[in-house]
Amino acid sequence: MKYIKQFLSFIKRKKAKSVQNLVVQTLDPAFFILDSNLQFSYVNHEAERLLNKKLNRLIGKSILSVFPSLTYLVERCRTSYRRKIVQNFHYLLPIINNWVHVFIYPSKHNICIFIQTVPNEHLYISDMKVYRHIFEHFPEAISILNIDGFVGSVNHAWENLLGISEKRIHGHPLSTIISKSDENAVTQELKNVTKGQTVQISVNVLYRFEKHLHVDITMMPIMINQQVARIFITIKKEPQSLTHTKRENKNEVKQSLFDKMNQIIGWDWDYKLDQLTWLPLKRDLFGIESEDQINTHRKFTMLVHPEDRDQFLESINRAKTKYDEPSKISYRIIRPNDQEIRYIQSLVQPNHEENHHQLTGVIKDITDNIKEQNKLNRTEQLYQLITEHSLEIIAYTTPDGRYEYISPAVRRLGYEPDELIGRYFSSYIHPDDLYKIDSPDYTNVLTCRFRHKDGHYVWLERSLQYIENNQHQVEKVLSISRDISERIEAEDIMKRSEKLTMAGELAAGIAHEIRNPLTSLKGFLQMMQYGYSVKQQYYNVMESELNRIEMILNELLLLAKPTVNKFQKQNIMMLIEHVTTLLGSVANMSNVELIINPPKEMVYINCDESQMKQVLINLIKNAIEVMPNGGKVTINVQSTTKFVTISITDEGSGIPEEKIKNIGQPFFTTKEQGTGLGLAVSFNIIENHNGKVSIESKINQGSTFTLSFPTME
């Protein structure tokens, strides 16, 4: 209160006119004054810039004649002037098509308008905690009703105004707090709101359900899909006469206005007498105990940071000779009480209305702005440092995969960043990996081959983060890609090694399997050698045995030899039959019966034939080995419209529950002579085929490994 009175009395004094002009000219908000006829009588520099009109094109002109689109703003000004009320609201300013914060303050003969631009994203924050905070701390009593008029949530102002807590009113009809005489009127207005109208009504409500209180109620429909879903209601006391309390409230509004002036402080300096006058004096800003510590320019200069002192003095001396516009000076001060450094911005101009040896100026503390800017700069520098020097490729793309930004690390692939901007990610990946982008499981991580500028392909692992707008729609995609060629090569070596190991383990069983048909062939040849007549049926048996030997050897060679990954449409039952043929001898030697339950119709998946057979051999062979005394291995194949599942069930001793989570990890095994790489390789192959593995096991009853793969039509 004291500060406001001092400031108002200061700017009304004649000798302070230049300071007053400096104050309003240097305000961050645009500021202009309309007279009672709504004509421009004053405009500061920021208002000229915002309105895009020079001072001489505005002074004396009606605001509507210059800006016909500002009808809403003009109506708010008329209301403020007529009712002598201050207004403070957000407004989409048509001139700049941007949201602004408007503050209207009427006086006896004029209307003062402050306009501050507001970034759109500051008005729409998709954070429910923020909305809840606004709801709870809104100065007027507000609530949300359902369309039947029952009260939902209420804020603290509601509880303070009506003396009724949310707990007591929640779920009750609004009529509970309305006096009997006004119940019908409120009920009728509620019906109008449910039809989409916004209504205002003055009624009596009950304070603590007893005492009558006269209030203004505003009810507004909340529309969703062109239907009234909820009702927003505000309740405030009816305006009273200009009592002491109301004057206090006005002064609070004034204080808020001056707070928005960024703590501007005016000063006069008579440099002939070296007398420095401050208004208002901010001892906490300067860190001083009394005005005597800075009542001369010489004393104040001692507060200026030593590194800025010479430049500060030079700027002050230059300002003495400038008459057309204020001089801007930026410097630092060191507060004597705590040695904290504060950043100051000052405007200085000669004051020739009083004498020829006086400077007038204003200063404001911009320390918080500088610190925030420095913080943003450091964050930006850190972000730039990370993106510019990271070995991983950081990129922004549109939802359909078009590059908008890509970090310099892409040079590892032979490209300059500008070469990929505007192009699509899918244009550079291997044709055999395109199906992974269309897969429903492709959401966050993709492993694919990316074309190097030299023409060869490099394996990349691409992690994604989706960035949504306020409507929860994907606006951009942040991707981090890393070269995993060496890892893929190591995995391929491990797969080939495991295949060779598996082929060696199968060799003994296959030798036994081949020996039987060879014995038959040898017998028939001996009969022919001794001149026995050979019937046609013997030739058929010999041909059948030779075909069986050829098929077994082909399967063994396919398993052992290195192959190039090639994904094709494969009949899953054909793969299983080939594998069981190869493992038939191993099963017979272990007294194990292989049982296959096929699906009702043919089922296809997209896979690499050699790798898929490797997985099936590994799992079925493991199932055989866990039953040294014989048993059954059951292979069930089922299909849906989206997935194919293959279940391999044994009758072994089972796997302890605490060990199941480790199955598939390299070098973890339950076998005495095992390496633990077989299932690790198999699980890796399944993952690369967009498949999933689940394990169920019961001690002394057996285990079931279930594989799931996307179906192909």
Please compute the radius of gyration using only Cα atoms.
Answer: 42 Å
* Helix content, binned percent: 25-40%
How many extended strands? Answer: 27
Q: Helical region count?
A: 23
Strand content: 25-35%
Q: Quick one: overall form?
A: elongated
Low-confidence segments, given as residue ranges, are: 1-20, 121-130, 241-248, 253-262
* Largest sheet: number of strands, sense, barrel closure: 5 strands, antiparallel
Structural class: alpha+beta
Strand order of the largest sheet: 2-1-5-4-3
Average pLDDT: 77
Q: Compute the separation of the termini in Å.
A: 80 Å
Report a brief summary of the structure.
This protein has 713 residues and is an alpha+beta fold.
How do the helices and strands line up, and which of them pair or pack?
Layout: H1 2-12, H2 17-25, E1 30-35, E2 40-43, H3 45-51, H4 63-66, H5 71-83, E3 87-93, E4 98-106, E5 110-117, H6 120-123, H7 128-137, E6 141-145, E7 151-154, H8 156-162, H9 166-169, H10 183-194, E8 199-207, E9 211-224, E10 227-237, H11 244-259, E11 265-270, E12 275-279, H12 283-286, H13 297-303, H14 306-319, E13 327-334, E14 341-350, E15 358-365, H15 367-389, E16 393-397, E17 403-406, H16 417-420, H17 434-438, E18 445-451, E19 457-468, E20 474-483, H18 485-529, H19 536-560, E21 567-571, H20 572-589, E22 592-597, E23 604-608, H21 609-625, E24 631-639, E25 643-649, H22 657-660, H23 678-688, E26 692-698, E27 702-710
Parallel strand pairs: 22-24
Antiparallel strand pairs: 1-2, 1-5, 3-4, 4-5, 6-7, 6-10, 8-9, 9-10, 11-12, 11-15, 13-14, 14-15, 16-17, 16-20, 18-19, 19-20, 21-23, 24-25, 25-27, 26-27
